[in-house]
Amino acid sequence: MRIDIITVLPELLKSPFEASILKRAIDKGLVEIHLHNLRDYVTDNYKQVDDYQYGGGAGMVMMIEPIDKCISKLKSERNYDEIIYMTPDGETLKQRMANHLSLNENMIILCGHYKGVDQRVRDHFITKEVSIGDYVLSGGELGAAILCDTIIRLIPGVLGDEASALTDSFQDDLLAPPIYTRPAEYKGWKVPEILLSGNTPKIEAWRDEEAYQHTKERRPDLLE
Ligand code: 6GU
Asked: Using a 6 Å CB cutoff, which residues line ligand 1?
């Protein structure tokens, strides 16, 4: 998979891809991340990427020309499955969306900033608009990092234990059951006996029930 991220703040997006699972995925050659600084696509001397909005009103708007230049150059080099715009009024990111996007080969992610982008960018270039939740971020960069994380960890070979992505919270619309490791007793607090029994079918049944109860308590909306 190849992800091209277009941003006015590339520094903000460097560290997530230089650590942990995402770095390992890149090192293994399973994913390529390319950061594009929108200012590199500005022709005027002031390196201006935003301007006042027509009709008046507070806040700057990202201009169409540098975005067009960047997206058009990328599109001339390869085909893209999706051109995503990160915005609070996009479709809310859910596990199902991450699962679908993880099957793609090439994607562009455009990070919104200021008030957002000129509507013509959304009308003519964008194929999907994504929000990461009902709150406002200063820009789309942190949202893009989260979107990339959810997608990349699903690519086969990225996680060491192939089975573990399938047992995550939300993967079957349930929250994860409680987990424990050594010691079996700490300050008198015991690990549930069943987990020490070695009886795999019983352990699985216990985990399923715990996941169900946990979900019913915390996120009953997931069971509807
Ligand atoms: Cl993707 N961008 C911004 N600016 N705010 C958000 C968001 C994205 N998702 C939720 N809030």
From this structure: 86-88, 112, 131-133, 135-137, 139-140, 143
Q: How far is the CA of 37 from the centre of ligand 1 (A)?
A: 19
Residue 180, CB-side half-sphere exposure with 13 Å CA sphere: 15
Domain with CATH 3.40.1280.10 in the chain: 2-152
4-18, 38-52, 117-131, 138-152: the lowest-pLDDT one: 38-52
Query: What percent of the chain lies above the pLDDT cut of 70?
Result: 99
The CATH 1.10.1270.20 domain(s) of the chain lie at 169-223
Atom of ligand 1 nearest to the CA of 93: 9
Interval between CA 193 and ligand 1 midpoint (Å) = 44
pLDDT in tens, 34-43: 999 999 999 8
Q: Which of 60, 132, 142, 148 to mutate to test the pocket of ligand 1 (most atoms within 8 A of CB)?
A: 132
Q: Cα(89)–Cα(98) distance, rounded to whole angstroms?
A: 18
Helix, strand or coil, per DSSP, at residue 66: helix
Both tokens of residue 145?
Answer: 């990092």
